[in-house]
Amino acid sequence: MSVLSRPTPNRLSRAFTLVELLVVIAIIGVLIALLLPAVQAAREAARRNTCKNNLKQIGLAAINYESTHRTFPSGGWGFYWVGDPDWGVGERQPGGWVFGIAPYLEEAAVAQVGKGIAGGIRGDTPKKQAIGQQMAHPVSVFLCPSRRGAAAYPTGDPPVQEPYNATAPPLYAKSDYAANGGGDRIAVGRGPDARCYERYPNCDGLGAGWTWNKAHYERWDGIVGYRRGAKLRQITDGSSKTMLAGEKFLSSDMYTNGLHVGDDNSMYEGFDWDTVRWTGTQQPDDPEDQPNKMPQPDQPGGNKKDLHPESFGSPHAAVNAVYCDGSVHSINFDVDPEAWNALGRRNGADTGRERFSQDPL
């Protein structure tokens, strides 16, 4: 006799209901919303560390420059001039401090562009055109990753006039870092006229008659100045208490268009607020001097001519700076004005002030 097995009842497969599916999607959305700020914060922390490392490299390069030449790099002649490898260092070099320290950042090739080329810069002699190639050569160590990548960018609208001693490229290499010009702003400008290549050192505008005179020199208390760099022995406040360079302020909606007046030229140019900033208050004998040079957080708005072109600043929660001993610090935007001013002055006898920086490297 065969045994008949009992039929097994069919098992119905159970799926998510619409309500359950919506609940799951909502939970995933909440988790993503919670994770995104953490991811963004982690990315910003990484960018901030990269920025501080950039300043560390810049500081070490400037210190190595000082060890070689017994002075920190000079600021150059003005924004109508760029570096010339045939014109040495110091007062004779028309290019700025970025050009000066390039060889110490493994960028010796850019500092040798145009070397040995004959010819002047006046209409009756050919320009040393190859020098202009340096103006478009970006170096990642001079660019903050929270702002922009290593590329050449526009020079403004309309473009800034090309320098006297080079044929300018259509795009310029920029720097997100500026050297410490001191507490007082020394006048900036285009520098001596084009004939200076033939007449140096007897050039109109190079000496006492235009941007620089004895009173300016005596007042200058920074590290990088017009045609000069400070000597280590001149930093009487101490190298660990004096800023060498820091992040410069830049309008957050002008990172890549070249419209900010403090970011419309090449980083290899001579003395200008594109590559030099200050920490002090307004000078009574200089009506064009800005009254507020406190560090500023990057912000949109304003026009290209009046939005903190003389101030340090940052896209981060605090401004990063490298000191003359090579250490890197983050300084809060609400730093005491007197302490901030003291940080920019190398010889103010103000080393006893309370420390206000944090996170040294």
Automatic annotation (TrEMBL):
<dbReference type="InterPro" id="IPR012902">
    <property type="entry name" value="N_methyl_site"/>
</dbReference>
<feature type="compositionally biased region" description="Basic and acidic residues">
    <location>
        <begin position="347"/>
        <end position="361"/>
    </location>
</feature>
<feature type="region of interest" description="Disordered">
    <location>
        <begin position="342"/>
        <end position="361"/>
    </location>
</feature>
<feature type="region of interest" description="Disordered">
    <location>
        <begin position="277"/>
        <end position="312"/>
    </location>
</feature>
<protein>
    <submittedName>
        <fullName>Type II secretion system protein G</fullName>
    </submittedName>
</protein>
<feature type="domain" description="DUF1559">
    <location>
        <begin position="40"/>
        <end position="338"/>
    </location>
</feature>
<dbReference type="InterPro" id="IPR045584">
    <property type="entry name" value="Pilin-like"/>
</dbReference>
<dbReference type="Pfam" id="PF07963">
    <property type="entry name" value="N_methyl"/>
</dbReference>
<dbReference type="InterPro" id="IPR011453">
    <property type="entry name" value="DUF1559"/>
</dbReference>
<dbReference type="Pfam" id="PF07596">
    <property type="entry name" value="SBP_bac_10"/>
</dbReference>
